[in-house]
Design goal:
The structure is a single chain. The protein is built from 6 helices and 5 strands; from the N terminus they run βββαβααααβα. By secondary structure, the protein is an alpha+beta fold. It has 2 domains: 42 residues, no CATH class; 68 residues, Orthogonal Bundle (434 Repressor (Amino-terminal Domain)), CATH 1.10.260.40. The strands form 2 sheets. It has a 3-stranded antiparallel β-sheet with strand order 2-1-3, with no helix packed on it.
Length: 156
């Protein structure tokens, strides 16, 4: 084994020293450059008695209760125009940027939950609907469900 400081061959057992936070295996000549580390004081790796706690598995989809309606931009624009507000007026009332309001009305972006709540309260409209559960039907194969059984192909 070679000394990690000077590179010379270590005869016998190497000495463990600590130099600026790094632990090195060195020869007897380089021993004076660092602080000697006792073998028992250094913990390496994970303790043997450590048992990882299993984290509860939560799906991101479990938290989703409602989804945004398909024509949210039109509905927001109509409610805003009904009150004779400009996009800037609406933005000031909900403490958001005018450009964000315009992008949401054009449906360039989908509003997050916080923005949906603000818009629903200020405009007195409903922008979310409950998620409909898909009821897949078993095909002639009689076996387990396949992806083809669940997915509906949308053709142009």
């Amino acid at each position: 084994m070679q000394c990690e400081m000077c590179g010379s061959e270590i005869i016998g057992r190497p000495h463990r020293i600590l130099i600026e936070g790094s632990e090195l295996a060195v020869c007897g000549g380089c021993l004076r450059y660092g602080k000697v580390v006792e073998e028992n004081s250094v913990q390496r790796g994970v303790p043997r008695d450590f048992k990882g706690r299993a984290r509860p598995k939560h799906s991101i989809f479990d938290r989703i209760v409602d989804e945004v309606i398909s024509d949210y931009g039109t509905k927001i624009r109509e409610a805003r125009e009904k009150r004779e507000w400009s996009p800037d007026d609406l933005a000031k009332r909900i403490s958001e940027r005018e450009s964000l309001i315009k992008k949401v009305e054009r449906e360039d972006i989908t509003p997050d939950e916080a923005l949906i709540k603000k818009l629903e309260s200020v405009l007195s409209i409903k922008l979310t609907e409950g998620i409909k559960e898909a009821n897949p039907t078993v095909t002639k194969s009689g076996g387990a469900l396949t992806l083809g059984d669940i997915v509906r192909v949308k053709r142009k």
